[in-house]
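Appendix B: complex inputs.
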Amino acid sequence: MAEMDTSGGGHKKGPGVKKSKKLSTRIDLTPMVDLGFLLITFFIFTTTMSQPTAFKLNLPKDDPSHKDDTHIKQSGALTILLGKDNHVFYYENILDPAGKNFKSTNFKDIRDIIIKKKASTPDSDFFVVIKPNEESSYKNVIDALDEMAINVVKRYALVDISDGENQLIHATEGASISH
Amino acid sequence: MSRPKLPRKSTSIDMTAMCDVAFLLLSFFILTTKFKPSEAITVQTPSSVASKVAPDKNIVLITLDKEGKVFLSMDDESIKESIANTLNSSKGLSIDVNAFKKATFFGTSFGQLKSFLNIPESDRKGNLLPGIPCKDSTSNNNELIEWMSIINNAYQGQKMNLLLKGDNLAKYPSFKYVLVAFKKNDFLKFQMVTNPESVPSGSDLWKLNQTIKGGVAPKEEN
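Resulting structure:
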């Protein structure tokens, strides 16, 4: 394929014509292949195959009359609180005034907690409340919402944190640093 | 006993076939590659399991950088033109409509918009600009509310894709105030740009996907 037909077509040369020496037309293709693969590697590494995806979020309408508010059962509620440095806190049902059921966790373990709560509550009562505080990052919020998608939680809400809960977070975060 | 002599074979291989394959692959990668346009605002998006590809037509994109600064970009030039005219007539900004049309993003308060548009395109960098003021939920400090209402009027029932692209490190309050601006203008559906991530195996969503794909629900293991 890389060599050409150099047999000269077969017509006879005159008696005075000197026969020129036939040169081989075989080319060494190795450098060309090298270059080819070098470029391939370059394009493989620079190509971006994964396109960004979009995560859908529907917001509830702000209704001052509160007539369409969703009422949730305390027994089916799981509240996830997000603090700084990827700290996660949660409590089930309603927050104990003394903060006894206020527990600390992390993003790895929160999935098991959601699964456990989901399994132990009737589907119609299960509700997750996500409350990020002012020091949590956008990534934390997306991760928490993503966790809802992963565990197929149908009803969840993003709610502003209350002062009492925020104080508990700060107290716990302060305590964990001093230890 | 003498061994039969094996004929010595040439060790040179015909490279032609290999060369063909190499260049075929090369042309494939050259044609499919899509260079990332150098972005004026650097944003590291979080990842999610969402599998829907982000739309790229008729978009209104709000970018939230790691310091919580808010930028706005749109792709439809005719919409941008009508927005520029609205801004000129209602706020008396006397901005250059053509420059507004060509600008890829906006990242200043209304007052500074005119001087922002005088900066050459290549010098508009997210880290040097103040961003659209979006500091709380009142319209005094949250100009995004007004931006969204102008955009809403400009689109007037046409299909638009509202996108939010936030940085991993952006703090929650800045995200919250963007949501406030959306809510106040009844933009209740929007999409957040993320990097794709695989669904963890064994989770409920994974089981759901398996059921849809395979048609048979996997056995529950206990």
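Residues 16-32 of chain B form the longest helix (17 residues).
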